[in-house]
Amino acid sequence: MTVVASREAVRAERMPEAQRPGTRRRRTPGASPWWALVFLGPTALGIAVFYLWPTVRTLIISFTKSGPFGGSEWVGLENYARLLQDPELIGALRNTAIYTVIALIGIPLAVAIAALLNTTGLKGRSAYRTLYFIPVVTMPAAIALVWRMIYNGDYGVLNAVLGAAGIDGRSWLTDPNTALVAIAVVGIWAGLGTNIVIFLAGLQGIPDTIMEAADLDGAGPVRKFFSITIPLLSPSIFFVSVISVIGALQVFDLVYMMLGRSNPAMPNTRTVVYLFYEAGFLDNDRGYAAAVAFLLLLIILALTIVQFRLQKKWVHYE
Length: 318
Prior knowledge:
Layout: H1 2-14, H2 33-61, E1 64-66, E2 72-74, H3 78-84, H4 87-103, H5 106-117, H6 125-133, H7 140-151, H8 157-164, H9 179-204, H10 208-216, H11 221-249, H12 253-258, H13 272-282, H14 286-314
Antiparallel strand pairs: 1-2
Helix pairs in contact: 2-14, 3-14, 4-9, 4-11, 5-9, 6-9, 9-11, 11-14, 13-14
């Protein structure tokens, strides 16, 4: 009994003080769950006020119909039934889808530019990075004004360059066949800087030892790019693809500022958000506009879920 008791005493002495039998555990300073609420409270309040409540409010308004003097009445699913029968919705969804597909071309373009800017022997890398990022910090109104002058059919720079090469130009922003593509090109140019910065951060996170091992195995630049760089950069590509799709589906400012309401190409360039703008701010039909906005929310949510499901097949996190 004495031997057993002594062994237990020695074992108790070797235990940390907090785990010894009969010892009262001391609470670590700041370990109270109330401190977590203190730090998370402002962020949670901001999300609830500026994100969750507007979403719920939009859903509620989508079941109402606005009166001529600001009142509203409950109409149930009438706005959604009207929306699904609206021929302008099909055109807006088609234009938005075309714009989104064209905008995604900017992702491989940004990857290629980021890989070139990440080259150690390139002179003036900082200047190139600054030039590519300038459109990101430029006001959309200024971007639209400059590109309207470039696309102008009478004195535009683009037609002048094409004319010098013996190619007949056209009125790019009033031609229904080219207006949407022209706006999508501006969208790619405006968002290129953000994507390049993200890809540069991903490229700089790739260990040099992996590239050195590939060099020892005799891999060339092209093989290293597609077999090593792209797989290791896939998390960044996935992130950029998600935010690019969400941003493209919400395009409005470029369409509004580069075309205008009286443009003959507007039926071929009207997007879902522009349809929301017409219903809510021009026709003062807030219920129908809310239904358009909530439908766009569901589309974005569905596409984002699909992207997260598909990323398991091609994104490598190790």
